[in-house]
Amino acid sequence: MSEVQQIHIILEEDFSIYPFMITPIFVSDPKNIQALNEAYKGDKKLFIAYLKEGKSDEFYKVGVVGDIMRKVSLPDGRVKILFRGIARGVITEIVQNSPLCGKVIPFVYQSYDEDHLNATMEVLREQLSTLANVNPNITNELLRATEEGGDPNRIIDLVASSIKPPKTQAFELFAKNNIQERMILLIEYVVADIENQKLQKEIKSRVQSKMDKINKEYFLKEQIRQIHKELGLEGQKEEEIERYREKLASIKPFISAEIHKEIKRQIDRLSKMNQDSGDASIVQNYIEWVLEIPFGKFSKQKLSIESVEKQLQEDHYSLEKPKKRIVEFFAVKELLALRGKENKDSKGTILCFYGPPGVGKTSLANSIAKAMGRPLVRLALGGLEDVNELRGHRRTYLGAMPGRITQGLIDAKEMDPVMVLDEIDKVGRSFRGDPTSVLLEILDPEQNKEFRDYYTNFNLDLSNIIFIATANDISQIPAPLRDRMEFIHISSYTPQEKEQIAKKYLIPQEMKKHGLKSYEVSITPPALKDVIEKYTRESGVRNLRRQIATIMRKVAQKVLVDSTKGEKSKISITQKNLAEFLDKIVFEIDPAEKAPQLGVVNGLAWTSVGGDVLKIEAVRIEGKGVLSLTGSLGDVMKESARIAHSVVKVLLNEGKLKSTIKLPKTKEKPKPVYEVYDLHLHVPEGATPKDGPSAGIAMASVIASILSDRKVRGDIAMTGELTLSGKVLPIGGLKEKLIAAYKAGIKKVLIPSKNYKRDLDEIPDEVKENLEIMAVERIEEVLKEALV
């Protein structure tokens, strides 16, 4: 629950329902039944509010928001529901009294000191261990749950539901938003319960019943049977148990003896339990989850690389290298399938598409799933911190559920889906564990045949799943995890490629989404080019799609207005009227300066969202030769600046670089120019962190410019690592950097000689045709081309 919602409300006297708890509720009050029926007709959302002590119409504003999982009308007029609590909520306004309905906002907890809370948790564990000796409600599972840690609010709710304090005290604990205060208050209740239980035990020992154990059990069971008979529930439980047994028998050929034993044990356990007990709900929930796992169900479509290749060509423009590599990957899989008996022990490869946002990583996985006729399951891993989200929660926790992998199989309804692990480079770590450790097991073909979900408590075979990961920056992926994947780079699109993608895919798709016909709207090529170059700032086409959608919305509005007047619309988007459909221009890269400038050089940089032109500036100030660096530079970039400074000093000393600066006259021996002036080197956009060695030759050029008093060509850009001996070393990300130079209107680019020989074939023809690309091996060659 993340925003204000309008929810139907029922009032409860007994304080027994907490978030993340699945429990039956009997409703008899007509107003409550009316609110319940209205909620069940709608989104099945319900708010449980608690009546104040001794009041029939006054209730607390803090309660539990949840779902109605099941609803049964009883013969005596009551209604039984199975309610699943989701979160705490707060009523801000009553909007309707019959049935009761109000506006509910999420309950917000205060932040807390983790060390302080851990110390308080230790005290709670000690007191619970003492209480467990005198109170049978404090089970070993509850003690284990507190030992294993997890969400402190869940632990507090779990303990409170077990000790059942008086209603006023229970609500005071329930409504506090300070976790530290909640835990201290709970410890007070636990200590009070210890004393109470000791007193009860003493009294019971004096008046202990002599009733025979067998007769007592018979009497209680007979009572339960009669109650069920009166409620009309006799036979319903048996039907459910029989249905579970039939489902288990149908999947028995496809599961191991371990799985069969665990599910059968839980079904037998449920058959002996009272249907209305809290434990019965937990066990039944478990059985329904595990029986939904699609054991023995696999895709019937045979793998064909022709269909994969055809689907990729239909869905994606350009990306030739990635598409070729994907086809090769599935060619190997098809060959192994044909020779299955000979290659049954062969292990698969996990693909990882990496590149800037919006270049088509996830949509490539969609195309693969479509071509193979398999369901697609997408797991968004961005910001995931809790290891139990993947592994599953142990059933001792309130609201425990299977992990996302198991839920993905249930959603797919097959054991061999295409599973996309989106944003794998953004997985986090916290006190809840390190999810990458689970991903190591999931993505390892040696281990994922026996992946254990903590909730199901048995091993699942994940080896038939095709895992495809996506990432923006693979350097953020831990090394052991990188080792299990094969990386396919999806690089930035050139403006020409974006234009073709817009014409063939984006414009037709957006026209269809907005209900427009092809004869009603057209975008001229010059206007489309302006949208690409002046209204988007990206390496992919995601923002381009948004801009096209903006145009289509305004066109749709105009078509609707014209149709009401009986007029037919034919709207053409041109360069002249484009500003009517889009708001403000955003230049992706500043155009290159035409005139040479002193102390300003165009460097080329790679970022996780594509290439960029990095202007590096320097000024000289009378001083003692100190080099100052600003612009949020990383350690490697700072070292590159110092190397560049030293290289230029050497060139000045050797006379390979001449300075025309007039130095002040002194009686002493004249100092070199670099000892007379301090240098301040700055890389603009100071709030953006920058690092890497590839700006080495650009920094040397700007320092040489300022110390020699010679200007740098404005239409030239450069990239390359520099050594102390003046050699130019190769760099990465050349394609993105050259595309950025092309977009900025640069005429000439200096790149390392090794990159020229090795990587030039990957550069789009459009870029090579419009840029003069020159290979350099030493800094002298760079300065010869750059300085005027």
Automatic annotation (TrEMBL):
It is found in: Cytoplasm. The active site is at 694, 737. SMART domains: AAA, LON. Residues 595-788 form the Lon proteolytic domain. The keyword Cytoplasm applies. One of its GO terms (molecular function) is sequence-specific DNA binding. One of its GO terms (cellular component) is cytoplasm. Its EC number is 3.4.21.53. One of its GO terms (biological process) is protein quality control for misfolded or incompletely synthesized proteins. Belongs to the peptidase S16 family. Homohexamer. Organized in a ring with a central cavity. This is Lon protease. It comes from Helicobacter brantae. The gene is lon.
